[in-house]
Amino acid sequence: MRGGTILFCVTTAILAGIATLPAQASSLLDYVGQCVPFARAASGIQIYGDAWTWWDQAEGRYKRGDAPRVGAVAVFRKTSRLPLGHVAVISRVIDSRVVMVTHANWSRQNGERGHAEQDVTLTDVSPDNDWSEVRVWYRDAEGLGSTTFPLYGFIYPATTDGSRVKSAPELTSRQPDYVGALIDAYR
Fold first, then answer.
1. What is the pLDDT of residue 182?
2. Rg for the chain, CA atoms, rounded
3. pTM score, two decimals?
4. Do 172 and 155 contact (CB within 8 A), yes or no?
5. Can you tell me the distance from the alpha carbon of 41 to that of 18, in angstroms, rounded to the nearest whole number?
6. Residue 118: partners with Cβ closer than 8 Å, 6 or more residues away
7. How many angstroms separate the CA atoms of 74 and 137, rounded?
8. pLDDT at 179
9. Burial status of residue 114 (CB atoms within 10 A of its CB: 0-12, 13-18, 19 or more)
């Protein structure tokens, strides 16, 4: 019955993550709040604390790396503009330097921060093509922001013992704008 036990654990972890969303959020995309609880619910990765601490906390618990994969969490380093870091979940891989993320608390919507955004462009601008520096689509600018942000890397939706966690179904839309993501990245 090991398979049933794993399914129960994965389902419980997802429900626990969704339970951390505000009661008024009927869908992951209705969420308004900080990036950390959103990323936990969206990815199924059960790490707590400030976003920049996720990278070290994942060591020995989840697989990590420097290549984006769907369901992985991109962990932004702490900077003066991001004093708590940031986490975003990879929703689509477009090409070797462009992905889409679903995250919360980035762009302003209706004059306030905290809203969830689905399938927004994240592009690798690192000189060595290693995803160590990125730019993120910013709603207020109607395109990629001008700030470059350093990344630690990606936490994958698989534990170090080989079991997988499941991301939320709303992680990506049915018809993401691939062309728009490429235009954003290569403008």
1. 62
2. 16
3. 0.80
4. no
5. 5
6. 29, 91, 102, 170, 171, 172, 173
7. 14
8. 57
9. middle
Q: Which residues of the chain have pLDDT under 70?
A: 1-26, 140-143, 176-187
**Is-contact 107 116, C-beta < 8 A?**
no
177 φψ region: left (φ > 0), alpha (ψ -120 to 50), beta (else): beta
Write down the pLDDT at residue 150. Answer: 98
User: What's the token pair of residue 187?
Assistant: 């403008």
Q: Tokens for 88?
A: 């975003």
Helix (H, G, I), strand (E, B) or coil at 74: strand
Tokens of 61: 């618990």
Amino acid at 83: P
- Both tokens of 132, joined, read 């160590």
Instruction: Look at residue 31 and give its three-state secondary structure.
Output: coil
Residue 105 Cα distances to 82, 95, 131, 179, angstroms:
11, 25, 21, 24
If one counts every other C-beta atom within 10 angstroms of the C-beta of residue 122, the result is 27
- Dist CA 86 CA 77 (whole Å): 7
Closest CA to 51 of 31, 23, 10, 81: 81
The answer to whether the beta carbons of residues 159 and 87 sit under 8 Å apart is no
3-state SS assignment for residue 113 = coil
What single-letter DSSP state applies at residue 176? Answer: -
